[in-house]
Write a structure and sequence with these properties.
Elements (H helix, E strand, L loop, with lengths): L3 E9 L5 H14 L4 E9 L6 H11 L3 E6 L5 H11 L4 E6 L9 H9 L7 E6 L7 H17 L8 E8 H9 L7 H8 L3 E6 L13 H15 L2 H31 L6 H34 L6 E4 H6 L1
The protein binds uridine-5'-diphosphate (UDP) and magnesium ion.
Length: about 325
């Protein structure tokens, strides 16, 4: 019987130091899995260091290694999408290059997927601790998951990592979702299927540094909300109605007061406060609508999610 192919997609941005270490580890794991054939797909997301050279070297040493190099940095979501599109395996895994996703879990994941009784389509991972992360970042991350899960029908799991191994069916389903603004954590939830969650403690990256600043994470959170729920639009509409009702009641009260007690001119400061409050709410609601409109605008352009400059096939032609 032909060996089943396991594609492992690794998105890399400035990972020249981590990549050789990662390759060594993944190699070790697949040496212990003679039943499966590895296809390692390295995606170079416009790295500014020698990541691409590392990839070429690995490809030349080992023909199971393939690579896709982007024309610039398109972000991890784009890198994962490119990897999934190009993977040919019966199983496809997504991993980071920094060994924060332990390859030692792979044999267990494959066993779980092959368990006929349990019938899992995907084994995903979530970290149960946030060691080595600033407390303020953990706090906002927790708040984000609480809020988005209240607002969205698609469940987002707190602490879920992108590290997962999927069967072909689920990969094809993900690839059916062709949107430009890709928020993978939500897309994985959206397609459904039977998912088994493995939990592990957070591991710090082996080399290099994280590419996530607080600001980047904040923007990522807004993206997730806009991509997976329209509840903020409803909130904006409800706020509008609420303010109309308050204004109406105030008008009635003021007219009644004037008719009964006459009209002593006063209340200038309080009026300014009300004007500020109401215009603040208006701008806030306009901002919410703007977020959705901007995403719609980007989607209608139908730009490609990523642009490839070079792959291993180009090397072979030379
Ligand atoms: N990454 C990427 N493109 C980017 C940023 C990151 O492909 O624009 C890759 C990065 O090389 C790594 C993975 O995504 O393999 C996770 O990044 P990082 O370790 O910085 O994130 P963290 O683990 O801190 O969440
Ligand atoms: Mg990392």
């Amino acid at each position: 019987m032909a060996k089943e192919v396991v594609s492992i997609v690794v998105s890399c941005y400035n990972e020249e130091k981590s990549l050789p270490l990662f390759y060594k580890e993944i190699n070790k794991v697949f040496d212990s899995l003679p039943k499966y054939k590895l296809e390692l797909i390295l995606v170079n997301d416009g790295s500014k260091d020698k990541t691409l050279e590392e990839m070429k070297k690995l490809h030349q040493e080992d023909n199971r290694v393939r690579f896709i190099s982007f024309s610039r940095n398109f972000g991890k979501e784009a890198a994962m999408y490119a990897g999934l599109e190009n993977a040919t395996g019966d199983y496809v895994g997504l991993m980071d290059a920094d060994l924060q996703d332990p390859p030692s879990l792979l044999p267990n994941m494959l066993d779980l997927l092959n368990d006929l009784e349990k019938d899992y389509d995907c084994v995903a991972t979530r970290r149960v601790s946030r060691n080595g992360e600033p407390p303020i970042r953990s706090f906002f991350a927790k708040a984000f998951y609480k809020i988005i899960n209240k607002m969205s029908d698609v469940e987002l799991v707190d602490g879920a990592r992108d590290y997962r191994l999927m069967k072909r069916k689920m990969v094809d389903a993900i690839l059916e979702l062709k949107e430009y603004n890709r928020f993978s954590k939500g897309l994985f939830g959206f397609v459904g299927f039977n998912i088994k969650w493995l939990e592990y403690k957070n591991i710090e990256r082996i080399a290099g540094e994280t590419k996530w600043s607080f600001w980047k994470l904040f923007k990522y959170a807004i993206e997730g909300i806009v991509a997976f729920t329209t509840v903020p639009l409803t909130i904006a509409a409800i706020l509008g109605i609420l303010f109309c009702i308050i204004a109406f009641i105030m008008i009635v009260v003021i007219i009644a007061k004037t008719l009964i007690f006459g009209d002593p001119t006063s209340g200038w400061p309080s009026m300014i406060c009300v004007i500020f409050l109401v215009s603040g709410v208006q701008l806030f609601c306009l901002g919410i609508i703007g977020e959705y409109l901007s995403k719609t605008y980007l989607e209608t352009k139908k730009r490609p999610v990523y642009i490839v400059k070079e792959t291993e096939k180009d090397l072979e032609k030379k």
